[in-house]
Amino acid sequence: MSASGSAAVTIHSASLNQVASSRTVEIPSYDRERLEDVGFLASMTFVLMCNYHQTGHFGGPTAYMPYTVATHLAGPENGGMTFDYRRPKHPFADKFMLAGGHNAPATYALWMIMGEALARKHAITGDERYKADPKASMLSIDALGFRRGAGALATILEENDLVDHPTMAQAKIRGIRALSGHSETTDLTNDVNGGPSGIGIATAAGKAAFWDMMGADPSLKIIAIEGEFALTSGHSQEFKTQAVAQRVGKRLRVLMSYNNAGIDDELVGSVVKEDTYRIEDQWSSYGWNVFKVDDATNYDQVVGALKTMEDWDEDDRRPMIVVGKTVKGFWPGAKDG
Question: Considering the entire predicted model, what is its pTM?
């Protein structure tokens, strides 16, 4: 039972013959309150960061946050990632792909919270287990680096007479890290240069197939997050067929943030209303193993979906996708907006 006291959630499935089914899944043991707290802090951090710079996407990252937090912190036994923040590029860590690259503020903020937690724990205890190389970590000072180049960051504190301000002391450790507007492979656990139009998802099938070809441990997995509109691109369709053809199975797990809220709807009518289309059927028709959750901003449902994929029969060679209903601009605890 989760810390919330809930015992089970409903996970929906879509089959090749377009027949929908549902199953009741026991919520695994995990610290829901901790994940919600981290998600709230990360949301606060990236909204502050983007508002300060007057740039960046707010809607998508807020919708992604429960996915990004759960994949990093739910634990591998529950379908979360196996990784080490101190060695994020370890060759035998799970591969995390923020394919929806515009949503980088969500992961930047999460990594800042995690980096700060390790740094403060190390400072208090002196325990080397909590020591992370600041050159690899992200720290709170790096919020100043969002969408600023290294050249500007080298002098920004001096130009504003803040070099010796106590709040800016972290900058003396290794400077301020420049953070791009899109996800990049240099970013902590992220393993893709993501951006618009689904370009980040295209390599996910190949990464999963490579591990199969190399005989890697079956527990290793690729987790990729993307929104529904980016997954309509041409290379996304090729990705769907490649993953099925390579029979990558549960090694590949896609988390779709489905909110049916494209930014161009008022201009070109890009949003297809839900009464005319079932996006799960598109993926099942390609031969994917499709799951759906009613609320992907609910940590119990997200972790329940991750656990379902983790426990799935590895002999089923269909790649996996979770279609999770999200809300652009979602805020923890908010009601009716």
Answer: 0.90
Cα–Cα distance for residue pair 260/60, rounded to 1 Å = 11
Interatomic CA distance for residues 332 and 33, integer angstroms: 12
Give domain limits for the chain.
8-102+183-325
The C-alpha angle 330, 333, 334, rounded to 5 degrees, equals: 55
Beta strands 8-14; 289-293: pairing state: antiparallel
Judged by phi (left if over 0) then psi (alpha if -120 to 50, else beta), residue 231 lies in alpha
289-293 and 252-258 beta bridge pairing: unpaired
Helix H or strand E segment including 121: helix 104-125
Q: Is the pLDDT of residue 229 over 90?
A: no
The per-residue pLDDT for range 84-101, each reduced to its tens digit, is: 999 999 989 999 998 887
Task: For residue 89, report the phi and psi dihedrals to the nearest 5 degrees.
Answer: -105, 25
Identify the CATH assignment for 8-102+183-325 out of 3.40.50.2300, 3.40.309.10, 3.40.630.10, 3.40.50.970.
Answer: 3.40.50.970
Residue 270 has pLDDT above 70, yes or no: no
Measured CA angle at 74 (ends 70, 80), to 5 deg: 80
